[in-house]
Give the backbone structure.
Amino acid sequence: MNHYLFSSNMKLADIIMSNYRLLSVLSRFNINLGFGDKTINEICEQKHISEDLFLMICNVYNFKDYLPTIEEIKTIEINELISFLKKSHNLFINQDIKEIENSLNKMCSCCSGNHLSLLMKFFEDYKKEVINHLNYEETVVFPYIDSLTKNKEVNNYHINQFEENHTNIEDKLSDLKNIIIKYLPEICSPEQRTMLLQRLFLFQEELFTHSIIEDKILIPLVEEIEKGYDAK
Amino acid sequence: MMQNKQYRVVVIEPSPIIISGIKHLIENSKDFLYVGSIADMEFLIQRLTPLRPEIIIINPSIIDFHKRSSVHSLFQNFSDASIVALCYNFIDSNILKQFDGIIEINDEKLKIENTLINSVNKNKNSETPDSSELSDREKEILISIAKGFQNKEIADIHNISIHTVISHRKNITRKTGIKSVSGLTIYALLNNLINQNEFS
């Protein structure tokens, strides 16, 4: 398995060519396009990016069955991981959700019916849920981890209290997809509808990968740190 | 001591590698008895009959394209046997829903055993073929869900147990693909089961 993973001597352009979804990873590491034939190793050095983290994230994005071992996870600098996750949150809220919202509004403006206001309300509620969820991480989970790494006093919080409540968020996205694919009337603006669906599918994939990174990399890493902390 | 019932399993699949794999997986099970395999559809019924199958595992892609939509008529002589699909490439969900169970190529041993056992039970109590259309009862329940009633209230309104309400809800979600109450409300509205004035 490890044989087929991306490695640091590969050209960044090649791995992007092999999976365009990695494009969304680049900006979260402040990498701009136009990097020519540089290898991952060269770019990471130039941009002062942790090569291990960058490769791990790219591999999780690209290989559905890939999960790093705990030994590999332990080599990750947790602040860098959190910085990546924060940038992801920012993109979800300020880019992905906005685009979906625009797309939905466009679709609704092209057709008529009293169900549209409900559909928009549905998305409005969904958006709130996503923002709440991300806010919880930003205001409770990340600060907790920060205190933990700085050896500051931590209250009784433990990372295992951080329930992976991504399921509800994914369920509603599926509901929305089902409604748009199957149940909106046929005449309802086919082009806008397709665009909206493509965005929904992409966003769902992003959320899925994001939850893997949080559940399978962040949490085990924090648990390791907690072990050291509790031992003191 | 009571002898455990072993179900006779036949595999209809062209690949010898896959057949050996399945055979190996169920060989030591107390629930299943591997009785043979068939590699193609030629004289299928004639070859299948002496094997007296109780579970038929078949790769849907070897069924003739125009016969795929009527899998059960293909095996009508074996109405007591459950038919389980074995998938390792894309098969239309309309075709898959005819089967009593689905085995995916990456399934673990335990999951495969469960699928096979469940298929037998499913085949036993399938009076009506599964359709994606909601039944009248399910529509009534859906309307109550859309109006915002809780399970307990729905049970009282329709004079059924909470357990039954939950099972209706599961079926509604399975058929529509929609889980959330707000999503179901939109579904009910789009299908004219309720109109917008009926709820706030």
